[in-house]
Amino acid sequence: MNFEIIGEIDNIETIASGKGIRDLARLRKQYGRGKWRKLKGTAMIRLEGKDVRLAEVPWYETHGIGRKEMKRKRYLD
């Protein structure tokens, strides 16, 4: 992750869950079993160059393990 989240993630929505996740087998192998969901939301992020931007950020999460593989998809500002 070459950015850091500043503040809260807003407008959170589920993109896929369960068998609808393409990488489900890899997630289970790498992090363990759970009810995996792929979510997305918007957040203010600070990039490595110290710029602050509003961006869409998708990630995977499950109960007991938490958020994994957070990415920056596109800028919204």
Could you characterize the architecture of this molecule?
The two termini are 20 Å apart. The protein is mostly beta strands and 77 residues long. The protein is elongated. It contains one helix and five strands. It has one domain (3-75). Strands 1, 2, 3, 4 and 5 form a five-stranded antiparallel sheet that branches. It is 10% helix and 55% strand.
Give a brief outline of the structure.
It is built from 1 helix and 5 strands. By secondary structure, it is mainly beta.
Key words describing this protein structure:
77 residues, five-stranded antiparallel β-sheet, 10% helix, mainly beta, elongated
Cα radius of gyration in angstroms: 13 Å
How does the major sheet shape up? 5 strands, antiparallel
Mean pLDDT: 94
- The DSSP helix count reads 1
Binned, the helix content reads 10-25%
Low-confidence stretches: none
Strand content: over 45%
Total number of domains: 1
Rough outline: elongated
**Span between termini:** 20 Å
Which sequence of SSEs, written as H and E, runs from N to C? EHEEEE
Computed structural class = mainly beta
Number of strands: 5
